[in-house]
Amino acid sequence: MATIISMYAILAVGLIFSLVKSKEKTKKACKVALKSLLKTAPALLAMLGIVGLILGLLTPEKIASLIGAEAGFFATITAAVIGSLTLIPSLVAFPLAGSLLRSGATVMTISAFITTLVMVGVVTAPMEMKVLGKRFTLLRNGLGIIAALLIAFLMGIIL
Amino acid sequence: MKNILKRFKLPIGVAIVFIALFIFAPETAERSSKVSWEYFLEMIFILPPVFILMGLMEVWLPKDNIQKWLGNDSGFRGGFLSLVLGTLPTGPLYVAFPLAASLLHKGASITNVVIFLGAWAALKIPQLMVEVKFLGWSFAIARFVLTTVALIMMGMFMKAVLRKHPDKKWLENSKGLSD
Fold this sequence. Notes:
- The structure holds two protein chains of two kinds.
- By secondary structure, chain A is mainly α.
- Chain A has one domain.
- Chain A has helices at 2-21, 23-57, 60-68, 73-85, 90-102, 107-119, 125-132, 134-158.
- In chain A, helix 2 packs antiparallel against helix 7 (125-132), helix 4 runs antiparallel to helix 8 and helix 7 crosses helix 8.
- The two termini of chain A are 35 Å apart.
- The model of chain A has no long low-confidence stretch (mean pLDDT 92).
- Chain B is mainly α.
- Chain B has ten helices and no strands.
- Chain B has helices at 2-7, 9-24, 26-60, 63-70, 75-87, 93-105, 110-122, 125-135, 137-164, 168-175.
- In chain B, helix 7 (110-122) runs antiparallel to helix 9.
- At the A-B interface, helix 1, helix 2, helix 5, helix 6 and helix 7 of A face helix 2, helix 3, helix 6, helix 7 and helix 8 of B.
C-alpha cells in the first residue's frame, strides 16, 4: 500500500512539472510509456502466471521442509535454487528465514536463500529481458547466483 | 495472427501449464491462481505510473547530466549515487527494470545500472529493518557489506563483457523508443 501511494505521489509531482513546462513533451512521454507497456505486456502476463505456478507449488511450509530438514552443502544449494525461483515479499521471507535459522538451518543456507531471493529472479527474467536485453539479464542473474553462493560461504565462515 | 501467437508464446505456454494443473492437481492450481491474482492486483496499480515515469525520464532527463553523474567516467561518485538511488524505499524489483533501461538509454554506465538494480533488490532500507529484526544485526551487516562488494565487481565485469560483445538486438529495439 505504501509503495502504491509513494509511486503515485512521485508520478503526480513529475506530471505536474512536466505539464507546466511543456504539454507537447508530456504527451510524448505518455506515448513512450504506452509503447513500452504494450511491448512488455506478454512478458508481464507470463511473469504473473509463473509466479503463481511457483508459489502454488512452493508454499512456505514446503520451503521450510526442503531447507530446514538437513544441514550441509546440499541444503545450501537447495536454498539457492529455491531463492532464485521464488518471488516472496521480504515481510514474509525474513520471518520464515528467522524461524528456519532457529530450528537448526545453518547461516550459510539462510544466507544463500535470502541473497538469491533478492538478487536472482527467474520469474522476472522475461520482463528483464524485454527492457534490458537478453545478454544483460542472463549475465546479471548468472553472476548473481555465483555471488550469492560466495556470500553465503563467507557468511558461514564469519558468523 | 502468426505474429501475435509468436509474441505471446510464453504466456500461452504458461496458460497451458495452468490448464493441465487444473485437471491433474486442482488444489495446487487453485492456490496458484490465487497467487497470480494477488500479483495481478498489485501490478495493475503499480505498473502504469512506473511506465509513465519512465516516459517522463525519456523525455526530460538531460543526457549530458546523466552521462556526467552516472556515465563511464563518473567513477566512485557515480557508483555511490547509484547505490543510494537503489536503496531509497520504493517498490519491487520489476518496477526498477524500466527505470534502469531509461538510465542506460541516457548514458549511465553498465556498472552503475547493475549497482542500482542490485541495491534496489538487495539493500532496501525498510527491508533491512525487517532483516535486523528477524535475523539479527551481524547477519544484516555482513550481508549488506558483502553484497555491496559483489555488486561492484559484477557491474565492472558485466561492463567489460557487454562492451566487447554488445547486445545488438537490444540496442536495435531500444532505438525507436525516444524518437
